[in-house]
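Our consortium's second objective concerns turning raw sequence data into structural hypotheses that experimental partners can test. To show how far this objective has progressed, the report includes one record in full. It was chosen at random from the queue rather than selected for favorable results. The single chain below, 274 residues long, was entered without modification.
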Amino acid sequence: MKFKKLLALGAALVFSVAFIAGCGSNNSDNGAKKELTYSKSQGPYSELFEKGVKPILEKQGYTFKGVDMSDLVQADQVLSDGEVDFNVEQHTAYMKNFNEKQNGHLVALTPIPTVPAGIFSGSKTSLDQVADGDTIAVPNDASNMARAYALLQKIGWIKLDPNKDLATVTQADIIENPKHLKFTEMKSLTIPSVRTDFDYIVITGAIIYNAKIDPKSALANEDVLPQWLLQLVVNEKNKDAQWAKDIVAAYHSQEFKDYMEKNNNGLWFVPKGE
């Protein structure tokens, strides 16, 4: 009888040890995840990651698969659904807007180098040529529309309601428009193709890059506010994952700083601390 009890006790102990070891193994596997998937676009931010950050992480044993996305809404949806691990295509203002409208659970982990939005020539070639009733094309998505109007205020063409948050202003928040400028809000991707139909256009960094417009040809650039800095974005459930911490560390590494010094070419605004 005692022998049977000892056997039962021994079996229970073996099971308990195996169960604990198994749990520890699973946690270890999750913590040591090395195969990562990210959504990518044809813009400068995926390219910067692939050329400047990815090689740093590959030395640490990480492997990556990029999944092409046609637009940022799609990229955020697959990230929110857990189909990819991260993206580097948006600022916090855009991310917050997505979370609110799509019930998303995305979080930003660190700011990354950003291409400023700019005002470029359309049919007119300098800011001094602005005249009464001139037409200006601006992005129609909420966050980048706000950037456009903030830039137009910066150069003195309009005045916005000072009681409004610059990150969320709309055309309705313009309280002074002395030159009676006319604004057309449209998809960012289409603006370069109709550039000469307007006197001026305002476009963001990814569009500047994709349209192969020389960023140095901007007639004026925005002041890059914190909410408009591009970010490394993950699903909230992965914000404390070791791989996420390692990507953040790579963006802050000396190796990446050296890469930026050699490859900036006047295109990038680099956040302090990067």
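The partners drew two points from this record. Residues 122 and 200 are 4 Å apart (CA to CA). The chain has a mean pLDDT of 89. Both points have been shared with the crystallography group to help prioritize constructs.
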